[in-house]
Amino acid sequence: MRVVIAEDLVLLRDGMVRMLSAYDFDVVAAVERGDELAETLVALRPDVAVLDVRLPPTFTDEGLRAAIAARRAVPALPVLILSQYVEPVYARELLSDGAGAVGYLLKDRVGEVGDFVKAVRQVAAGGTVMDPDVVAQLLGGGRRRAQLAALTPREREVLAVMAEGRSNAAIADRLVVTEKAVSKHINSILTKLDLPPSDDDHRRVLAVLAYLGT
Amino acid sequence: MAVVNEIWGRAWREFRRVLVSVGLGLAAFFLLFATVAALLFSLAWIGLPVFVEVIGLVRRLAGVQRRRSSPPIPVPYAPLPDGLLRKVRALLTEPATWRDLGWLVVQGPVGLIGMIAFGLWPAAVQGVLMPLVHWLLPPSVDDLSYQGIPIDDQRTAWLVIPLGILIGLVAYALPRWYLAGEAWLARWLLAPTAAQLADQLAARVERLAETRAAVVDASAAELRRIERDLHDGAQARLVALTMNLGMAEDLFETDPDTARAMLADARAGARDAMGELRDLVRGIHPPMLADRGLPGAMQALAMASSIPIDLDLRLERRLPAPVESAAYFALSEAVANAIKHSHAERITLSATDRGSAVVLRVSDDGRGGADPGRGTGLRGMERRLAAFDGTVRVSSPVGGPTVIEMELPCAS
Asked: Which of A53, B13, B224, B242 is the most buried (most CB within 10 A)?
């Protein structure tokens, strides 16, 4: 699997290259600046790109902007954004094209190597991965609080894990319940929030995140 | 050709300026009348609010005159206190008020002179055209005269032409003298006196000293908070982490299971430390603010709010970082207050760039009754913004709505 990495700190960039190589990824480029990142992504068309949000020259959000620009040229180009902090506004911008194949994770998660590699693969396969921190911010503060109050505590837990982009099986695994119970909860959640039912995991996540983000 | 154009251009410019001056003279005349009337009514109390209003109008008119002077004349007024009686007293004891009134007295007659300047042009034209007029008029009209000179025959009609030209020259030169004189009068009466300038400077120095002290206090307190957070949080966690790692190292051979559990603990500790550092950084300088400036940070505020927030962002440029930061914290304080106390259904956040200042406004449709004297939040906002000469205005009648408007001077 061909991957492009963008990270300005040598320590982290080298670590990431080593780690992804060890898990059989083919690192075709490891970029340290943001100026020509979008062009590089469009030219190389990797199976997945792992990008730091904050890159030279301006050290603001060029990673994100490069990702959005590249996905405008190559729709649904799989992109996983890493950041020292997560912002729901950025998550919304990443998700806004509705194409999926995006991830947004805290840099801390790189430490949980197994989970991180799984997330990279999931994004490459067209899935959506959201950091639990983003989900918590969306659930905790957002303006949907009134509607979310209608959910049972268990349904809130299921919603949170679902919003991270997990499949029914993974949700069942995490919450130690049966898959059947999970799908029952999900149906109830979608009904209460007035969202269209969908068997497709990706579409479902996008709908839920769009709902929480607006 | 160019010379003619220049002469006409100048005459036209001066003509317009004299026209404005005459208009000001007329307005001054009426306002003088209104002021005297308001003063008389004030003897019977009911005129007091009218007096304050009229003086407000006088200041606006004087403001027009100050701005059209070149260079513009600085404004001499001290800020007005709240409360009708205190306002009246401040206005009456303010020398600038009386000097403004003196200007009103002068500007009325000055406007009259300006009108005469307009009358000269038709007179000049009439003089130059006199032979034609005399030739065209039927012989039965025998009382034709020009500037008091009876025109009896065609010869006299030709002779007054030089007089017409002379009047034309005066009409051309007079506006310049007139405008210079008017400007001198305006500067004499409307500019702050040396004593006023000194008072203004003294007040400004005092205010700067106050706000500087407040800023130093606030940043010292902030540093202490950060130090404490680091000491009790991330630092303590890192100590625990190294302890765990050290013990795991010791037990590596003898008790691998316990060592593994300790490594897991260490990892959890590292994760917590990262989380705490992240929260700390967010509190010092929100990343959204650093990345996207005030509009981006306001979007993030809106998204995190439990009450729906409408955004009206008319701010394209990035402000200087300290101003941006002060504005953001004041805004988020205002939004937090609205969420906590207002019981509002909607909040509106707006940022408007006025060029020399940025105006931020937080309004909600809640129950109102926010008191700037009582809430520490509002006072904190004032203190933050005061460091940049910013001001906070609060309007929050009981029953709502609450509008908090912050103005931060920052030239583009």
From this structure: A53
Task: Give pTM, 2 decimals.
Answer: 0.67
The residues near B377 (Cβ < 8 Å, ≥ 6 apart) are B333, B334, B336, B337
Cα three-residue angle A110-B281-A101, rounded to 5 degrees? 35
pLDDT of residue A1: 92
pLDDT of B134 > 90? The answer is no
Q: Six-digit token pair at A184?
A: 């029952």
Do residue B303 and residue A142 have CB atoms under 8 angstroms apart?
yes
Q: Mutate one of A143, A147, A211, A214 to test the B interface: name it (highest B CB count within 10 A).
A: A143
Which chain A residue has the Cα nearest residue B282?
Answer: A85
CA–CA distance, B103 with B99 (Å, rounded to integer)? 6
Handedness of CA A169, A172, A177, A182 (dihedral sign): negative
List residues bridging with B393 in a β-sheet. Answer: B405
Instruction: Tell me the shortest Cα–Cα distance from B407 to chain A, in angstroms.
Output: 26
ipTM of the complex: 0.79
Select from B363, B361, B369, B411 the least CA-distant residue to B391: B361
- What does each C-alpha distance from B105 to B24, B33, B190 come to in angstroms? 12, 10, 13
Nearest CA in chain B to A62: B291
Q: Would you call A141 and B304 a contact, using CB atoms and an 8 Å cutoff?
A: yes
Whether B309 and chain A come into contact, CB under 8 Å, resolves to yes
- Model confidence at B25: pLDDT above 80: yes
Rounded percentage of chain A residues whose pLDDT exceeds 90: 43
Instruction: From chain B, pick out residues whose CB is under 8 angstroms from the CB of A92.
Output: 303
Per residue in A26-58, pLDDT tens? 999 999 999 889 999 999 999 999 999 999 888
